[in-house]
Amino acid sequence: xxxxxxxxxxxxxxxxxxxxxxxxxxxxxxxxxxxxxxxxxxxxxxxxxxxxxxxxxxxxxxxxxxxxxxxxxxxxxxxxxxxxxxxxxxxxxxxxxxxxxxxxxxxxxxxxxxxxxxxxxxxxxxxxxxxxxxxxxxxxxxxxxxxxxxxxxxxxxxxxxxxxxxxxxxxxxxxxxxxxxxxxxxxxxxxxxxxxxxxxxxxxxxxxxxxxxxxxxxxxxxxxxxxxxxxxxxxxxxxxxxxxxxxxxxxxxxxxxxxxxxxxxxxxxxxxxxxxxxxxxxxxxxxxxxxxxxxxxxxxxxxxxxxxxxxxxxxxxxxxxxxxxxxxxxxxxxxxxxxxxxxxxxxxxxxxxxxxxxxxxxxxxxxxxxxxxxxxxxxxxxxxxxxxxxxxxxxxxxxxxxxxxxxxxxxxxxxxxxxxxxxxxxxxxxxxxxxxxxxxxxxxxxxxxxxxxxxxxxxxxxxxxxxxxxxxxxxxxxxxxxxxxxxxxxxxxxxxxxxxxxxxxxxxxxxxxxxxxxxxxxxxxxxxxxxxxxxxxxxxxxxxxx
Length: 546
Fold this sequence. Notes:
With 546 residues, this protein is an alpha+beta fold. The chain is built from ten helices and 27 strands.
C-alpha cells in the first residue's frame, strides 16, 4: 500500500447452474480435444522460447533471463524475460514470448520496442557518490524536510528504456528513519550523464485452532504443534507464519543485504486458541495477519490455480507490531514477507484487515509477473491491481464480520481520518484525491490516486454503472462518457485481470496497454465476439481509455 497518504474458498462462476472456478474455466476453454497427445511442459516452453529469441532482433550485447513461464491447458506457451545490456539491467527491457502448442513463435509483448542501447555508451559521467547525494536530497524533499536519520543510499548503474530514448542512469535506493524511528524509502532514477532526475517513486509497495481477530471475528487457523506448544505457522500453505516485530524496524535497503532486520519471532500458544479480539492483546493482530495470508493464498490457488505468491508453493511470512504508531503496511520482495504497522490510533488502527493483506500480498504477485514499474500510469496499474485482488480476496473469504465491498481499508480507518475508507472503487474521487477518468495528466499523479482509473474500470466491469447496494453498503458508479455499463460479475473480472497481468502486461504497461491486455485476456477466455469481450471494451471506454 506504500506510504498510506492521509486522504492510503473459491470464487465461483455461474454457468448454466454449474459453479466453476476461473482456473477451471480457462482449462475448459483451452482444453485440447480428446485423444490429443500430452502438451508441452514448462521446460519445453523455455526451450521453444529460446529458439524464438532470434526473431526479436536482440544484439550480442544483450542477455536475457527467464522470469516466469505459463503453459495454457491447450498447450499455448508464454515465457517472460528480463533483459540486460552489456551486463546492466534494462528498465523496460522485459518482454513475453507467446508460442503455439507446437512451439512455433506467435508474437511478443514488449515493455518497449526498438533498441535498448544508450547513445552515450555505458560509462557514466556522473559518479555514484553524486547520484547517491541527489537521491538523498530527493528523499528529504519527498518527506517535506522532516529530520531523517540513519540515511543509506545504494546506487546501481542501469539502462533506462522506460522514459523515452534509452539512456544510462543511476537507480538509487534510499532508506532512512523518521522521527518515530519508522522507515521511509524512495527509489530515484538519475541521468548518469547530466545528473537530472528522470523519475522517483516510493520504495515500499504498500496496504487447526482458531483465533479471535481484530476485524474478522473468530477465524479458523492451521497451526503447527512443536513439542507441547503451538506455533502460528501453516504447513498446508507453504509454511507461512506470523511473528512479532516487537515494535522494531529494519536498517537496510530493500533488495540488499540488511545490517539488521526487525525480528519476526513466531507467535506461540499453549492451547491453540489465539488472541482475544482486543488490540491490547498482541496475538490478536497476528490472528488477522495470518488469516489474511490464508485467504489470499486460497484465493489465488483455488480461483486462479496459482500455488503461492511466487507460484512455487513456498509460503511468505508476516511481521506485526512493526515500528511506532506506524501508519503503513507493505510487501517486501527482499524478505518475501508482509509487514504491518499498528497505526497511530487516531487516523488508522492496526493495518491487518483482510483487504489490506490481500492488497499487499498481491504486490508480490505483480512483482513475480508483470513487474509494473511503480511510477506513472504503470504505477497506478500496480496499485489498482492490488486493490482489485485485495477486494476479490475479501469477497471470496465470505466472512460475515468483514463482508465484501468495494471500499479499501474500511476496517482500519478511525474517526480522525475523516472518511470511512482509504479508497473507493465505485467512485474513486470520493476520497478527494483519486481520479475517476483517464486524462493526459493521469501519469503525473501519485500512484494511489492514478489507480482510480483502473479501480473504476474494475468496478464497472464487475458490477456495472449506477446505484446499488452490495452487502449493505451503498455504491454508485457513474461513467465518464455518459454510457450505461452492464457488469459481468466479480469472478470474470478476476479471471480477465489475472490473465492480463500474468500473460500480457509488462513493466511499462499503461492504461491504453491495459485495455489491450484485458481484451486479449477476454478473447482467450470467452472469445472475441463474446459479451465479456464487449463488456471489457465498454468499461474502459466508460473511464475514457480507448
